[in-house]
Structures are given as structure tokens and as C-alpha cells.
UniProtKB/TrEMBL annotation:
Pfam families: DUF4912 (PF16258). This is DUF4912 domain-containing protein. It comes from the Bacteria. InterPro entries: DUF4912.
Length: 235
């Protein structure tokens, strides 16, 4: 199955179409692809026990290392360019699986540029951006999870129902500044009750009548190389 995923990804086919073609889920396709990319980058396969760490920032959040499975191998083992990326997807209704690709050279550059310790961890900053055109600062709240910089994927629990979230992957400078490296896609958590209103009907009518240029409930995010968030910009 991995060989088929590799061939289709090289043709530019999306994870969703690959999953449909192979009769599996998007999450399983993404999981195998990111593991394959990690093998190409490191040249080795690591098997480690699952671990759970608890961090608290604004809200209770449980984070944990993904249980390492023996990665599937392929005849195509030549090294290829790694595109920096951060993706979040569902694991369960209140838990997400996030994975990323960031070059070791880029991480070392940031640590040197901001005088960080060599063991400085990644920071996964999860924003609640429900009904917001997000500019990086106007979130409802956020929570930080600290992850060893040797990791490339993680689980995060504690999401609330009927909310919209996105994530920044970054690092914390000695001064306390948050240096964001990459921003993820947006996910929308499901409703748990049928009587829960997903979007404001007033805003929907205003959009349909042309009084709004874009629907407020569709969150927009931008990507970037990195930026520094000053202390006063934090929630």
C-alpha cells in the first residue's frame, strides 16, 4: 500500500483521493506518508513506548507522544527534498493528531539566532479561532504543549465541541518570546447535540444578502517562515 501512496503523491494526488482509491481512511494514508518521510530524513526506524505528558496553559490539555510503529519500507529509498509543513487531523472528537516536517538545519538556525539551549523543545500552540478571521493575535484563547524537538508528530486532547482550531509550531526564546515556524490548517470540532447552533443565523443572512464580503464563520489563516510574538500579544 505504501508503494501506491508514494506513486500517487508524486503525481500530486491529494490524501483524500488516495484514501478513496485505496479504500481506506485519510488518517491512515497521512500516517503512513509522514512515517515514510521520517525514514527518508533519518535513515532509521525507531520503536518507542507510548508516553503521555500533561501541560496546562489557559485550559487543561493532555499531550502525548505517538506510539512508534515499525515504519513500512519501500524500494524507493532515495532522499528527496522535505517540504516544511504542519498538519492537524482528527483522532477522536476531542483529540487531534498533528504531524510536521521541519528541517534540522532550520531548527538549529532558530536556536542559534535566538540563543536557545540545544535541548529547547518545540511548542505546539493550539488556538481557538471560532468565528474569527484569524491574524495570529485575535484568538479566543490558546494552549501550549511542549514537545521534544526530535519529535515529528504528537497527540493533543481536550478540544471543545463546536469550535474551530488551528495550530502554530514554534519555539520559546529565553526571553519568553514565542517564535512561530509554521501554521496548520483549520479544523472544526463536531457538535455533540442536535440543538447546538453551529453558526450564527444572523451572520448567515447578512452574508446571503450581500452585507458581508466573506462569512465570519470561515476561519482564514496565513503561512509564513517565522515571526516573533511579543509577550504583550499573548493571551
Amino acid at each position: 500500500m505504501l508503494d501506491e501512496i508514494i506513486i500517487m503523491r508524486e503525481k500530486g494526488i491529494s490524501f483524500r483521493k488516495i484514501a478513496k482509491e485505496l479504500g481506506t481512511t485519510v488518517g491512515k494514508v497521512q500516517y503512513q506518508w509522514v512515517k515514510y518521510q521520517r525514514v527518508l530524513e533519518s535513515g532509521s526506524v525507531e520503536i518507542a513506548a507510548a508516553e503521555t505528558i500533561t501541560e496546562k496553559k489557559n485550559t487543561d490539555v493532555r499531550v502525548g507522544r505517538v506510539k512508534k510503529k515499525a515504519a513500512l519500507t519501500s524500494g524507493k529509498q532515495s532522499r528527496r527534498p522535505i517540504v516544511e509543513d504542519l498538519t492537524i487531523t482528527y483522532s477522536t472528537g476531542s483529540r487531534i493528531y498533528c504531524y510536521w516536517t521541519v528541517s534540522r538545519e532550520w531548527v538549529n538556525h532558530l536556536k542559534d539566532r535566538f540563543n536557545m539551549d540545544v535541548e529547547s523543545p518545540f511548542v505546539l500552540r493550539l488556538y481557538d479561532i471560532t468565528s474569527i478571521i484569524f491574524n495570529g493575535h485575535n484568538h479566543h484563547s490558546y494552549s501550549d504543549s511542549f514537545v521534544p524537538s526530535s519529535e515529528c508528530d504528537w497527540f493533543i486532547n481536550g478540544l471543545k465541541e463546536n469550535r474551530s482550531y488551528c495550530m502554530d509550531l514554534g519555539m520559546r526564546a529565553p526571553s519568553g518570546e514565542f517564535i512561530a515556524i509554521k501554521r496548520s490548517n483549520v479544523i472544526h470540532t463536531p457538535r455533540t447535540a442536535l440543538d447546538t447552533e453551529y453558526h450564527s443565523l444572523k451572520e448567515l443572512k447578512e452574508f446571503e444578502q450581500g452585507r458581508m464580503k466573506e462569512p465570519k464563520w470561515v476561519e482564514h489563516v496565513s503561512t509564513y517562515s517565522y515571526y516573533v510574538m511579543e509577550q504583550e500579544d499573548k493571551a
